[in-house]
Design goal:
- By secondary structure, the chain is α/β, with parallel strands linked by helices.
- It has 5 helices and 8 strands; from the N terminus they run E-H-E-H-E-H-E-H-E-E-E-E-H.
- A hairpin with a 2-residue loop joins strand 7 and strand 8.
- The chain is globular and about 55 Å long.
- The two termini are 25 Å apart.
Length: 188
């Protein structure tokens, strides 16, 4: 399977740190799968203007095509001003509305406090559902106090990330099996 992990912000280090840890788990536990980390801070994405994603050039085309070719998308996002970052929203706007059809999506969220715990439920899950993703229901929520010097220091958070990876992979395998069974119903 082709797995794309997205660090969905151009500022800060916590989301990137969490996504790097997630990618390491994926690479260690599932070495036969292709894993790509897209850190949006490393790319110069154009603002969405309604064009087809294939009509963009440079970094924008690379990032959107990488996502469109994925089987699994693991989205890491900070919470800014009680919302997802504009960079991540722009990325969603660059893609077609059915971009995540047939794809599994899971979420890892970093935030300054517990107050924004429901932002993924109220903002991110509806976007992913609208774009036709099969969404892993549980997500990992990490607060500032769980980090120290660009490392995750809370063992419970590390355990929850590990579990998110397992749940994501299990849903992906289950979904692929269901799709194979459905495809086998047709004689052509």
């Amino acid at each position: 399977m082709n797995i794309v992990a997205i660090a969905g912000s151009v500022v800060g280090s916590k989301t990137k740190t969490a996504m790097q840890y997630t990618v390491k788990i994926l690479q260690d536990k599932y070495p036969d799968h292709e894993v790509t980390l897209l850190d949006l801070a490393e790319y110069d994405l154009q603002f969405s203007d309604g064009r087809n994603y294939l009509d963009y050039q440079g970094d924008t085309k690379f990032v959107t095509e990488t996502i469109m070719n994925a089987d699994i998308i693991m989205i890491g996002t900070p919470i800014f001003q009680a919302s997802i970052p504009g960079t991540l929203k722009n990325l969603f706007d660059l893609l077609p509305t059915s971009a995540f059809e047939g794809k599994i999506a899971s979420m890892l969220v970093t935030a300054g406090s517990q107050r924004h715990y429901l932002i993924p439920e109220q903002q991110l899950k509806p976007i992913l559902s609208y774009m036709k993703a099969q969404v892993v229901q549980q997500y990992v929520y990490i607060e500032d106090v769980d980090f120290y010097r660009k490392e995750i220091t809370n063992d419970d958070v590390l355990f929850r990330i590990d579990r998110l990876v397992e749940d994501t992979m299990m849903l992906a395998r289950t979904y692929q099996q269901m799709q194979r069974e459905k495809d086998a119903e047709y004689d052509f």
